[in-house]
Specification:
Distance between the termini: 18 Å
Strand content: under 5%
Largest sheet: none
Number of domains: 1
Shape: elongated
Structural class: mainly alpha
Number of helices: 7
Radius of gyration: 20 Å
Number of strands: 0
């Protein structure tokens, strides 16, 4: 079971680190737009949507990484007075609720992604880029976060020493 949790952790860590690299092309094409617009008075049609698409991938695919490293917002004020065991239980309850939410999200975004792929959906703009890749990233992201939530729950009970690490999503 630990090996499976380790594999999920590694997967989300790698996907998150790769997704973080999408900031670089976003910055580059934004700089191209600034130079084209202000130096040559020749604005582009494609830059804004390109940055939005790249940021969509960045945001979606970074979710599992953020969950792995305990970066999502939570109300620690309610947990401060609890003993470590009670805090772990509260974290697990939160993760179970998160799993239900992610399962529903996976279902609906999966349907939307299949429809978008089948119709080769495009944005409604003059440039009209394909948007089905981003819509496909949504169920992938939900699945990665769901797997990470399960991994954190398993670790909270099977490997409490790992769950107690400061960068994990569960308090030990």
């Amino acid at each position: 079971m630990r090996q499976l949790c380790d594999a999920i952790d590694r997967l989300n860590d790698r996907v998150g680190r790769l997704a973080a690299l999408l900031i670089l092309p976003s910055l580059l094409i934004t700089m191209i737009e600034v130079v084209a617009r202000y130096a040559f008075n020749s604005p582009t049609v494609w830059v804004n949507e390109s940055v939005q698409i790249l940021f969509g991938f960045y945001f979606l695919l970074g979710g599992g990484y953020t969950l792995l490293h305990g970066g999502h917002v939570r109300v620690d004020l309610l947990l401060l007075g609890l003993k470590p065991r009670a805090r772990r239980r509260a974290d697990v309850i939160g993760l179970v609720v998160t799993i239900f939410y992610l399962a529903v999200l996976l279902w609906f975004t999966g349907e939307q992604a299949f429809d978008a792929i089948a119709s080769r959906e495009r944005a409604e703009s003059p440039w009209a880029p394909y948007i089905f890749p981003v819509l496909t990233a949504a169920p992938v992201a939900a699945a990665l976060m769901l797997l990470q939530a399960v991994s954190l729950i398993v670790r909270a009970y099977v490997d409490p020493a790992h769950a107690a690490k400061p960068d994990s999503g569960v308090v030990g």
